[in-house]
Amino acid sequence: MDDYWKELQGKRLHDPLSKNQVSPIPHILVQGPLIVGAGPSGLAVAACLKQKGIQSLILERAECIASLWQFKTYDRLRLHLPKQFCQLPFMPFPSHFPTYPTKQQFLSYLKAYADYFKLKPVFNCTVIRAEWDEGCGFWKVKSVRDQKVVVEYFCKWLIVATGENAEEIIPQIEGLEIFEGPVVHTSSYKTGEEFHGKKVLVIGCGNSGMEVCLDLCNFNASPYLVVRNSVHILPHEILGRSTFGLSMCLLRWLPMRIVDHFLLLLSRLMLGDTSKLGLHRPKFGPLQLKNLSGKTPVLDVGTFAKIKTGKIKVRSGVTRLTHRAAEFVDGSVENFDAVILATGYKSNVPSWLKERHMFDEKDGMPRKEFPNGWKGEYGLYAVGFTKRGLLGASIDAKRIADDIELCLEN
How far is CA 362 from CA 122, 164, 168, in A? Predict the structure, then answer.
């Protein structure tokens, strides 16, 4: 590594083009792994490395850790799973935190985590290109600091921790650009207070769409929920235990199809027939569907009761929007004051990582499914792309740290 670095610096020194540059691009050699992203996944893998005595460098495009949680989540958000399934490696949540920590509690936990492990990301540093250089045997990572200073890093190990939720998904809906009321993605939604008394169309029926509808109800808005596809709605808790925790426990002893059948039976007893209200269940069970496609079932936190009473109205897909109205697939037309897009997020990896083997160019996700998508070629790793939340990220973080430690020993 040192020999190559000296050769590179020598070439730059004697390059006539480089001499004519007023301010040549700084080149920085990273002795350990370089991590792109300072969200929970990036922090987790940096902490796992540090536990093994391996220093890393974290680059983060925002001005803080966990920017998605800081700036792109609504006020009432809580962790949907019990805290023991969401803690990062080597540091549990404080014992006085509730079972389902609030957004602010989770952020305070992440800050304490970064402080405890003395993790200091380089903020306002956007990676614009990363590629493997076969000639020198390094990853070349070009970044822009503070929107103006270009810096190029060289590293042996590159860890992609930008996650599944890097960019908002904006659906292609005819007329969306001409709708005259507010059109906001849930990444910009904070509270239903600004929609008080308004008729709001919420497009998307995942956990975010369902919870935004509930929040709108609490501020006396009239939400209409668009459900284009089938969806599993499960009680948040069953028999006094979290549904997720109960599922994990049962899966230790029973096949997935039996656990799915049990969950659906209890959900039918507790919620009734959801299809009567326009919420049709997929043909696969909730756990099987999650395992096959990564699609998470909705854990109901009170929204379904509002649907039952009619305070939240369910509509099928939207065909188009006009200046103040929406036309649905059944031909009906209704006026609305605002539209909220609960249409989720996507990976942005293909926009900056020039690599075709590990990540799919279409969706920016690892081509290999969990648990095999964490490792690529030439020291390339991925953390936070398991479609299994913080638990999956922690599993991959530990694997990556173990693998890099093994590389250093050999």
Answer: 29, 13, 15
Closest-CA residue to 43 (of 156, 105, 119, 123): 119
Q: Are 87 and 93 in contact (CB under 8 A)?
A: yes
| Annotation: CATH topology of 169-341 | FAD/NAD(P)-binding domain (3.50.50)
Question: Measured between alpha carbons, how far is 322 from 362 in angstroms, rounded to an integer?
Answer: 31
Angle (CA) 368 281 390, round 5°: 40
CB 145 within 8 A of CB 124: yes
Q: Which of 125, 106, 107, 109 is nearest to 117 (CA)?
A: 109
Tell me how crowded residue 329 is: count the other CB atoms within 10 A of its CB.
12
d(CA 51, CA 165): 27
Peptide bond into 16 cis (omega under 30): no
- The residue ranges of the chain whose pLDDT is under 50 are 11, 13-14, 16-22
Distance CA 130, CA 133 (A): 10
pLDDT (0 to 100) of residue 291: 85
What is residue 46's predicted lDDT score, i.e. its pLDDT? 98
Helix 256-271 to helix 286-293 angle, to the nearest 10 degrees?
A: 120
Given phi > 0 = left and psi -120 to 50 = alpha, else beta, which region is 239?
A: left
In angstroms, rounded to a whole number, what is the distance separating the alpha carbons of residues 403 and 155?
16
SS3 334: strand
Every domain range in the chain assigned CATH 3.50.50.60: 2-166+347-409, 169-341
Fold (CATH) for 2-166+347-409: FAD/NAD(P)-binding domain (3.50.50)
Q: What pLDDT is recorded for position 333?
A: 95
Structure tokens at 330: 């059944």
Question: Is this model's pTM higher than 0.90 or not?
Answer: yes
Residue pair 173/320 in contact (Cβ under 8 Å)? The answer is yes
Integer Cα distance of 127 and 145 in angstroms:
9
Per-residue pLDDT at 18: 45
Q: In the numeric block, which tokens belong to residue 370?
A: 């969990």
Supply the pLDDT for residue 5: 53
**Tokens describing residue 348:** 């942005």
Per the CB < 8 A criterion, the answer to whether 104 and 34 are in contact is: no
C-alpha 64/C-alpha 59 separation (Å) is 11
Pairing of strands 138-145, 149-155: antiparallel
